[in-house]
From TrEMBL:
Protein name: Class I tRNA ligase family protein
Reaction(s) catalysed by this chain's protein: tRNA(Ile) + L-isoleucine + ATP = L-isoleucyl-tRNA(Ile) + AMP + diphosphate
This protein's GO CC annotations: cytosol
Domain Aminoacyl-tRNA synthetase class Ia, first and last residues per copy: 16-136
SUPFAM superfamilies: Anticodon-binding domain of a subclass of class I aminoacyl-tRNA synthetases, Nucleotidylyl transferase
Record bears the keyword Glycoprotein: no
Alphabetical UniProt keywords: Aminoacyl-tRNA synthetase, ATP-binding, Ligase, Nucleotide-binding, Protein biosynthesis
């Protein structure tokens, strides 16, 4: 405890006898009073701290306890609240919603879970739930979180596999305004996701951070953009414009995920940092030392692309449904989307978005060989076998040359042989 004179000043001197040798008593006067005036004893009398505090964090039972006594004493003494924000959290229950206790034998030891599963999985579990309420936890729940963690980790590893040692944004990236249309749409969506994540962090809604990033990674990246652009990245000419356009966005996706996941997956993002190109590390060894991610486009710049992006997602869902039906009824005997030729119709508003200047070649997000597109009364899609023959290198159906390859693959192989 600090010397009383250090924070009482002249108030510790007796006006009659001049005595000033006060001894701080460690006895509790009143639990709510003593804790409630910590804003004075701690924040106002320590040079490295500020008053009001940025945040008070405690359990939900403190709304009638510490939060309230702190507010009352601070307003009474200084006329202001002692905090800028209050975050309360619930209590951890077992998988059946019961309070954990030794007598029930249902206590989960976080230290043991960290040793067994890794701290990042426990951190991911905390962010996957609304901690303002009481939350259940058991081995089964943590197993499910472990599956989600592996999805994140596999996506990071997948991106690193094509970027590490092969693509440096500082020298190889395509200017954003020159990206191919599908890449521009995806970059715009990336910027929007980052803004949504940033807003959720600002308001301490960590479960929203988790859900936003999880849905984005699984639904829109792994099953969407990354799967679609693998063709360009794997089969395109190594230094060709189309491949570099895709990898420019891949690098931004990787950078955004490292930044936005760092507060949660602290050890995993540090692993990634060891393999990032220098231009994405900003001279840092640890992800926690990175500045917050700066999105390539502002909201004013990316918002015009979002309607076209949503239109592509909607059209792709229609294709997926039609493709699955074509496989089920035997229309397609080869069960790869590249073996399909799609015929798509869309109502005028959706058609104009897909066919407009911000639209893209739908064969790429569909991962099929050909798309015939026209305006119609409703969104509808049918699937038939693709024209041409299967290229053994990229698996797309095209007119093959004398070497048995499609024109794109012929050029890519020729470039490798030069």
């Amino acid at each position: 405890t600090d010397d009383p004179a250090s924070y009482l000043g002249d108030a510790c001197v007796c006006p009659k006898c001049g005595g000033h040798h006060l001894k701080a008593n460690s006895d509790i006067l009143d639990v709510w009073w003593d804790s409630g005036v910590s804003h004075t004893a701690v924040c106002r009398h320590r040079d490295n701290l500020e008053f009001p505090a940025d945040m008070y964090l405690e359990g939900s039972d403190q709304h009638r306890g510490w939060f309230m006594s702190s507010l009352m004493t601070s307003v009474g003494a200084y006329g202001v609240a002692p905090y800028k924000s209050v975050v309360s959290q619930g209590f951890t229950l077992d998988g059946q919603g019961r309070k954990m206790s030794k007598s029930l034998g249902n206590v989960i030891d976080p230290n043991k879970e960290c040793d067994t599963r890794g701290a990042d999985i426990l951190r991911l579990w905390v962010t996957s739930v609304d901690t303002s309420n009481d939350i259940p936890c058991d081995g089964t729940i943590l197993d499910h979180v472990g599956e989600a963690y592996r999805r994140f980790r596999n996506t990071l590893r997948f991106l690193l596999g094509e970027i590490e040692g092969q693509f440096d944004p500082a020298t190889d990236a395509v200017p954003y305004d020159e990206l191919l249309p599908y890449d521009k749409l995806t970059l715009a969506r990336l910027c929007q996701v980052h803004d949504q994540v940033s807003a959720a962090y600002e308001s301490y809604r960590f479960n929203v951070v988790y859900r936003t990033l999880y849905d984005y990674v699984i639904t829109e990246l792994s099953n969407g953009y990354l799967n679609a652009t693998k063709d360009r990245v794997y089969c395109g000419e190594k230094n060709g414009f189309e491949r570099r356009s895709a990898l420019t966005v891949w690098a931004q996706i990787l950078s955004m995920l490292v930044h936005d996941l760092q507060p949660i997956l602290v050890y995993t993002t540090d692993e990634v940092m060891a393999y990032l190109p220098a231009s994405l590390r900003d001279g840092q060894e640890y992800a926690a030392l990175l500045d917050w991610y700066q999105a390539p486009w502002t909201a004013e710049e990316y918002e015009p692309y979002l309607a076209a992006y949503d239109a592509v997602v909607e059209a792709r869902a229609a294709f997926t449904k039609a493709y699955e039906a074509a496989v089920a009824d035997g229309t397609l005997t080869e069960k790869t989307t590249q073996a399909a030729r799609a015929t798509l119709t869309a109502p005028v508003e959706l058609h104009d978005l897909l066919a407009g200047e911000l639209g893209c070649d739908l064969a790429e997000p569909f991962v099929c060989s050909e798309v015939e597109f026209a305006q119609g009364e409703e969104l509808a899609c049918s699937v038939e076998p693709a024209h041409g023959e299967k290229c053994p290198r990229c698996w797309n159906f095209r007119e093959l040359g004398e070497d048995g390859l499609c024109p794109r693959c012929h050029d890519a192989v020729a470039a490798l042989e030069e």
